[in-house]
């Protein structure tokens, strides 16, 4: 993220305008966030093969952007830090809702024969190898749903670091700069968050 500083400046200027009553700043914020949200949606869809088959990344991005738009109608973030956290929450909620939808009794993920490994298919994206008959395993979707719910319920300091590193893809140095703490603090919170999730999920990390 070589342009992290420039992006931070752009976001902050628009947040200032939004709080000053400039509604056009909201659309500009959504445009700025679109790239971040798109990368996150693509990253997370690789972990949701059953959902990815039915929902294109652009659809997830549009829904998450609409969520963010509604959130900005209710909340006016004062800092880049709070805006990025807000964006991460909307993506997490969107993907949890999608997983629940396809994991339901009538969900398409439960009634579709998998064809994992086809070129261009989301299921063939880089990741751990998996058997074709496991690609739409409802337990995997349920596992990821619980994972994201647990991540969202982490103590605030750990959740914020987890969101920045896991969902937003920032480096530890970038997260430290954004949070105004040392890299050592970020490393500690990152390790603590992962250990806590491992314990809460009984060692059953999805993947």
Structure, explained:
The protein has 207 residues and is mostly helical. It has one domain (4-200). It has 9 helices and no strands. Helix 4 packs across helix 5 (80-103). 32% of the residues are buried.
Distance separating the two termini: 25 Å
> What portion of residues belong to β-strands?
under 5%
- Indicate the mean pLDDT: 74
Indicate the radius of gyration in whole angstroms: 18 Å
Based on Cα principal axes, name the global outline: globular
- Give the beta-strand count: 0
Largest sheet: none
Number of separate structural domains: 1
Secondary structure category: mainly alpha
- The number of helical elements comes to 9
Q: Stretches where pLDDT falls below 50 for ≥5 residues? A: 105-138
Fraction of helical residues? 55-70%
Order of helices and strands: HHHHHHHHH
Defining key terms:
single chain, about 210 residues, mainly alpha, about 0% strand
Describe the SSE topology.
Blueprint: H1 4-19, H2 24-45, H3 49-54, H4 57-74, H5 80-103, H6 138-152, H7 156-167, H8 172-179, H9 183-200
Helix pairs in contact: 1-2, 2-4, 2-5, 4-5, 5-6, 5-7, 7-9, 8-9
Structure described in brief:
The chain has 207 residues and is mainly α.
């Amino acid at each position: 993220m070589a342009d992290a500083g420039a992006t931070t400046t752009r976001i902050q200027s628009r947040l200032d305008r939004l709080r000053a009553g400039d509604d056009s700043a909201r659309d500009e914020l959504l445009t700025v966030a679109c790239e971040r949200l798109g990368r996150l949606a693509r990253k997370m869809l690789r972990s949701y093969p059953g959902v990815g088959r039915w929902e294109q990344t652009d659809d997830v991005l549009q829904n998450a952007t609409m969520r963010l738009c509604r959130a900005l109608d209710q909340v006016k973030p004062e800092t880049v830090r709070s805006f990025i956290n807000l964006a991460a929450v909307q993506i997490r909620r969107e993907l949890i809702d999608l997983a629940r939808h396809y994991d339901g009794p009538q969900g398409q993920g439960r009634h579709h024969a998998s064809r994992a490994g086809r070129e261009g298919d989301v299921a063939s994206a880089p990741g751990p190898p998996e058997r074709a008959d496991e690609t739409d395993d409802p337990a995997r979707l349920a596992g990821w749903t619980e994972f994201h719910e647990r991540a969202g319920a982490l103590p605030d300091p750990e959740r914020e670091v987890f969101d920045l590193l896991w969902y937003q893809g920032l480096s530890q140095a970038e997260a430290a700069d954004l949070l105004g703490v040392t890299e050592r603090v970020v490393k500690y919170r990152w390790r603590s968050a992962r250990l806590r999730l491992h314990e809460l999920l009984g060692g059953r990390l999805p993947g």
